[in-house]
UniProtKB/TrEMBL annotation:
Signal peptide: none annotated. Residues 47-123 form the AMP-binding enzyme C-terminal domain. Pfam families: AMP-binding_C. Keywords: Ligase. Belongs to the ATP-dependent AMP-binding enzyme family. This is AMP-binding protein. InterPro entries: AMP-bd_C (IPR025110), AMP-bd_C_sf (IPR045851).
Length: 141
């Protein structure tokens, strides 16, 4: 986040998103910068990750928004499978049949990887996945 955007009226805005529970406790649930806007709808990666991580053959999952000429951004799932026979079709069916995920939030693409890139403190590096995605697209053209 650029410094001018982060400091406003003497306050530092981190870009963190949070929710207050009924007791008034604040829980940080993600970053505004991670929000995916697809077809005018806001999609937070955590919502989609929660559904996919419940699949028994998914060891780890990360969701990123990739630029898309039609929708603005598309939802792309990076999956570390528990079972190498796991398919995109199976995961898409799993998401479709979930009553926790609206259709427009479903990933439009599934990419199977050996590991999710993380910082030394364990933070998922979504920007690395986005950059890798863009490089893959350039190479395939």
């Amino acid at each position: 986040m650029p410094i001018k955007k982060a400091i406003r009226f003497g306050w530092y805005f981190t870009g963190d998103m949070g929710v207050l529970d009924e007791d008034g406790d604040l829980y940080v649930v993600g970053r505004v910068d991670d929000m995916i806007i697809s077809g005018g709808e806001n999609i937070h990666p955590l919502e989609v990750e929660d559904v996919l991580s419940a699949h028994p053959d998914v060891r780890e999952v990360t969701i990123v928004g990739i630029p898309d000429s039609r929708w603005g951004q598309k939802v792309v799932a990076y999956i570390v499978p528990e079972n190498k026979e796991l398919t995109s079709e199976e995961l898409d069916s799993y998401c479709s049949n979930s009553n926790k995920l609206a259709n427009f939030k479903r990933p439009r693409e599934y990419r199977f990887v050996d590991e999710i890139p993380k910082s030394p403190v364990g933070k998922i590096l979504r920007r690395v996945l986005k950059e890798t995605y863009q490089e893959d697209i350039k190479e395939s053209v």
